[in-house]
């Protein structure tokens, strides 16, 4: 299993609508990716490594798929629509990485 | 639920022993945190946002706890031992952030 992590770097004065992200954007991603997205998780950044320090990322999602290929094939036909929805909840540019799930949730 | 994400930024020529991290370090963390660590997950970075691009993080773990306070109380007495184990698998300095789990694994 792999996970595609989409991470939104914290910036002061940036806009991020967590409710839209949770209630509209991520369900759209799930619907468009279909069964290629086994499930997804969403995080809201609270704090960095020291008390009071801003988190590195204001929000993240992690999209779990069987393989990188499965993700790419499912995402490509809907890339424009999914990426085009980003301005509806943020003016941040996300950082993306794909990881192997070495230890998953029990 | 909150998650404590410990993220190791990718650097060329850096050392990271994924097997030690999975088989020794993270089980040590689980044992020392006890029931405060509900579970944890481990990722190995494969690729960044473009094919062939290095991932932002070579490895990550996510430690799930009921609250920030529960994590802090469980971690503090073992901080020296846990942090002291880091050089056994890497020469990287991790980035830490705590997030609220907005959507968890189904």
Characteristic key phrases:
homodimer; 106 residues; alpha+beta; four-stranded antiparallel β-sheet
What does this entry show, briefly?
Two copies of one chain form a homodimer. By secondary structure, chain A is an alpha+beta fold.
Give a description of the structure:
2 copies of one chain form a homodimer. With 106 residues, chain A is of the alpha+beta class. Helix content of chain A is 28%, strand content 33%. Chain A is built from 3 helices and 4 strands, in the order βαββααβ. The first copy, chain A, has a 4-stranded antiparallel β-sheet. Chain A is globular and about 40 Å long. The first copy, chain A, starts with a strand and ends with a strand. The model of chain A has no long low-confidence stretch (mean pLDDT 97).
**Beta strands of chain A, count:** 4
Beta fraction of chain A: 25-35%
Span between N and C termini of chain A? 14 Å
Number of helices, where a helix is a run of at least 4 consecutive DSSP H or I residues of chain A = 3
Could you spell the SSE succession of chain A in H and E letters? Answer: EHEEHHE
Strand order of the largest sheet of chain A: 2-3-1-4
Radius of gyration of chain A: 14 Å
| Biggest interface between chains | A-B, 36 and 35 residues
Helix content of chain A: 25-40%
What is the subunit organization of this protein? homodimer
């Amino acid at each position: 299993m792999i996970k595609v992590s989409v991470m939104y770097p914290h910036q002061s004065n940036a806009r991020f609508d967590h409710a839209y992200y949770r209630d509209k954007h991520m369900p759209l991603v799930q619907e468009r990716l279909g069964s290629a997205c086994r499930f997804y998780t969403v995080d809201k950044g609270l704090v960095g490594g020291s008390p009071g320090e801003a988190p590195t990322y204001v929000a993240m999602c992690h999209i779990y798929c069987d393989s990188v290929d499965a993700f790419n094939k499912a995402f490509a036909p809907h890339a424009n629509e999914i990426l085009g929805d980003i301005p509806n909840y943020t003016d941040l540019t996300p950082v993306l990485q794909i990881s192997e799930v070495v230890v998953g949730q029990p």
